[in-house]
Automatic annotation (TrEMBL):
Keywords: Signal. This is DUF4403 family protein. Residues 1-17 form the signal peptide. It comes from the Bacteria. It comes from Chryseobacterium rhizoplanae.
Length: 454
């Protein structure tokens, strides 16, 4: 069974970067954001039934010899009449029912002279299987016989003499039932060994995923640990909840290098509970080259009046100093020089933009003598920057929500279906580096995984 493959394949959780990225971004040192994903997993018992039925042939047992078993003069064949059925118990156990049709032939006689008569009857064989999910990604089962339920009892009809052979048949079936327990446990151990799938998924997840070709954006999610709640057994399904601790990074520009592959996956941690909903943090990154380009589109060649004269913005660039974004505007006209406006970047929920707060102003010029004109210029250009400059996030938020929900509602592998919903998504923190602005995006969501039809 392949449902563990999907545990780490959540790289479709998408945020997008900005246009105009360049090759300088390959060296950008993006922050790692630690977060976790919680995911309830539902495994229908019908899927385990399919697995067991596929491994158990229709002809369960056959004895073609009259002379074995101390010359018992008895032959028997046992078939499955319907699919084996599983029902969830109350103590991490499975109740297994195997419906059987049995053909038996018995010889009656002495001194080597026998008269043979056959009969066909049906019974339901029951088993009780205790399931243990070990933290090394393997499952062990302990299957024990749980008796028979006769649908029709075996009787040999010799006309006037009818000989019940229930005791003979039961003896043989009990022996076979003990052997069948071992077969069930062996099949379970083979089919429910998730170590290879966990290792495959872990290493697949270490590869950066291109989440937006249009914006040349990459998401790299590094798993660091997995928490799993105890398996819960119900009438028709097994439930558990997974918590995957991760570091997520978003890159724009060149594809980032993949992490080194691992040769063995770490054991998971058992935990009593994991939250139904989760907060996932990702990052969207805007290099200062792009922030400068956005500022030029807004302010380049813009003019405003100062004392019946014109001041024109001839160039503008954006960079960072410490925790402040600096906008440096070159002006010409009545005031020729460099206006420097700096501020702390914050997310404005109403404008849905990254804007500047706590702004400061500094002017470098050689052609202005009047203090009043300088104050007028400062008031106008600072107000213009505060009102009009901002990095819009509305499209980012809406596109991210759509991308995440699309990623959360897919069948990544045959029989492995995810179902999820985003409740809220918005930037929560703005970080600065020497080369760009990083928005930390909080995503409140729920996610479920259904194993069906593998």
């Amino acid at each position: 069974m392949k449902f563990v493959k999907i545990l780490f394949l959540l790289a479709g959780i998408s945020v997008f970067g900005q246009t105009g990225v360049d090759n300088q971004l390959a060296a950008y040192n993006f922050p790692k954001i630690k977060s976790s994903i919680t995911m309830p997993v539902t495994i229908p018992l019908s899927e385990l039934s399919n697995m067991i039925n596929a491994s158990v042939k229709d002809l369960v047992y056959q004895d073609d010899s009259y002379t074995d078993n101390n010359n018992d003069q008895f032959k028997v064949k046992v078939w499955k009449t319907r699919p084996i059925r599983l029902v969830g118990g109350t103590s991490q156990n499975l109740l297994i029912e195997v419906p059987l049709k049995i053909w038996a032939e018995k010889g009656i006689g002495t001194l080597g002279v026998y008269t043979y008569q056959n009969t066909t009857f049906e019974t339901v064989m029951s088993f009780n299987t205790t399931v243990t999910f070990k933290n090394n990604w393997t499952i062990t089962t302990n299957t024990r016989p749980n008796g028979f339920r006769w649908v029709s009892k075996p009787v040999l009809d010799y006309g006037r003499i009818q000989i019940p052979i229930t005791s003979i048949v039961e003896k043989s079936l009990k022996e076979q039932q003990e052997k069948f327990c071992k077969t069930i446990d062996q099949q379970m151990a083979t089919q429910l060994n998730f170590q290879q799938y966990a290792l495959m998924a872990w290493n697949t997840f270490l590869q950066p995923f291109n989440i937006s070709e249009e914006y040349n954006t990459w998401l790299k999610v590094s798993p660091v640990g997995v928490n799993i709640t105890p398996l819960k057994f119900y009438g028709n399904q097994i439930n558990a909840t997974l918590g995957v601790d991760i570091y997520s990074e978003t890159f724009t520009g060149s594809k980032p290098a993949a992490s080194s592959p691992v040769t063995s996956v770490a054991n998971f941690n058992s935990t009593p509970t994991v939250a139904d909903k989760f907060i996932l943090q990702t990052t969207a990154n805007i290099p200062f080259t792009e922030a400068s380009s956005m500022a030029r589109k807004t302010f380049l060649n813009k003019e405003f009046d100062i004392r019946d004269s014109k001041v024109k913005v001839t160039d503008i660039r954006v960079y960072g100093v410490d925790n402040r974004v600096v906008i440096e505007a070159q002006t010409d006209g009545y005031i020729k020089g460099t206006a420097i406006i700096s501020g702390i970047p914050v997310y404005d929920d109403a404008k849905r933009k990254i804007v500047l707060s706590e702004t400061k102003f500094k002017l470098k010029t050689t052609n202005i003598l009047q203090k009043t004109a300088s104050l007028l210029f400062q008031g106008k250009i600072v107000k213009m920057i505060e009102d009009e400059y901002g990095i819009p996030t509305q499209e980012l938020e809406e596109t991210s929500r759509k991308s995440i929900e699309e990623a959360f509602n897919k069948e990544y592998y045959k029989g492995l279906k995810m179902n999820g919903k985003v409740f809220n998504l918005k930037p929560s923190k703005i970080l600065l580096s020497s080369t760009g602005i990083t928005a930390v995006i909080d995503t409140n969501a729920s996610l479920k995984l259904l194993v069906n039809g593998f």
